[in-house]
Amino acid sequence: MRLLIYGYGFSGSVLARRMGAAGWGVMATFRSAIGKVRIEADGFDAVDVTDRAGLAQALSAAQAVLVTAAPGPDGCPGWGTLAPLLKQAAQVPDWVGYLSTTGVYGDRQGRWVTEHSPLVPRSVEGARRVDAEAGWLELGRSPGFPITVFRLPGIYGPGRSTFDRLRDGRARRISALGQVFSRIHVDDLAAGLAASMSRPRAGGIYNLCDDEPAPNSEVVAYAAGLLGIPSPPEVSLEDAGLSATAMRFYGESKRVSNALAKAELGWRPAYPTFREGLAAILATEVS
Question: 138 in a domain, yes or no?
């Protein structure tokens, strides 16, 4: 079995290692010499994203394809590159996954959202994700195209967590009344994707997140406690002096349900809250 990853970033590399350990062959796209070196150093096959013939060959060999690259002003790069090749392919993969964001739900003032909730993005980035989802799901309506969309909150893990922000002085405890975020440990994300590969459903849409949405200030304080350092002082959203982009992020509050992924995929997060996830990261760092 072979997996092709379009966009070998944080999430893609963790999934690659998981599937590689399970005996899968892994291919991943690159745009630069540095990207090629990284993929090959991890023991996987590097595919030049600008090489149309090479991409077509990789697609024909893949049983699963994951698209992680975020859309830009010109749309989803994975769609623009892979969709024409998929439409022309004599044989399509058994599973194609697209990583989207829970930002497509917009602000729900702390209320719960499910995969059936209306999409009302408040940011440019969220609106681009809605358009990208629509393109992939439209392709999935064609016979033989098992497209699955995954809506993700903030992703954290080793090397990309509150610990790192505390250590370099970037962590802030921002207080916004009633505001909560969902999040997911990158290992739980990879496990959810692997579960979907074993149970492909054309047109499937899943929220992959932990079980306990929580405010930023609580997570930062807990992480500081684990490190045995003083927690940063809490500052109000109004006094935080955030950029316009950060203010848009803090302008949204919602609780994201993962019940559908649990029911249909048999998936359960190994780190159901940020507490277990942060503790596991710290244990890895000190072992």
Answer: yes
Q: What pTM was estimated for this model as a whole?
A: 0.96
Strand partners, 46: 28
Structural domain count of the chain: 1
CA proximity to 108, closest of 238, 231, 251: 251
CATH code for the domain in which residue 126 is found: 3.40.50.720
Nearest to residue 96, comparing CAs of 131, 129, 51, 142? 142
Q: Give the helix ranges, DSSP H, for the chain.
A: 10-21, 33-41, 52-61, 77-88, 124-140, 162-167, 186-198, 216-227, 244-250, 259-265, 274-286
Chain-centroid distance of CA 133 in Å reads 14
Amino acid at 243: S
Q: Which two tokens stand for residue 181?
A: 């975020």
Beta bridge partner(s), residue 154? 183
Instruction: State CA 123 to chain mean position distance.
Output: 17
Q: Per-residue pLDDT averaged across 69-89, rounded?
A: 93
From the list 147, 100, 95, 166, the residue with the least C-alpha distance to 128 is: 100
Average pLDDT over residues 152-181: 93
- Three-state DSSP class for 67? strand
Look-up of token digits 């044989």: 91
Q: In the predicted model, what is the mean pLDDT of residues 234-263? A: 87
Q: What confidence score (pLDDT) does residue 287 get?
A: 60
91 in any annotated domain: yes
- SS3 of residue 101 by DSSP: strand
**Residues 17, 14: Cα–Cα separation, whole Å:** 5
Q: Specify whether the CB–CB gap between 5 and 35 falls below 8 A.
A: no
In this structure, what DSSP letter does residue 114 have?
A: -
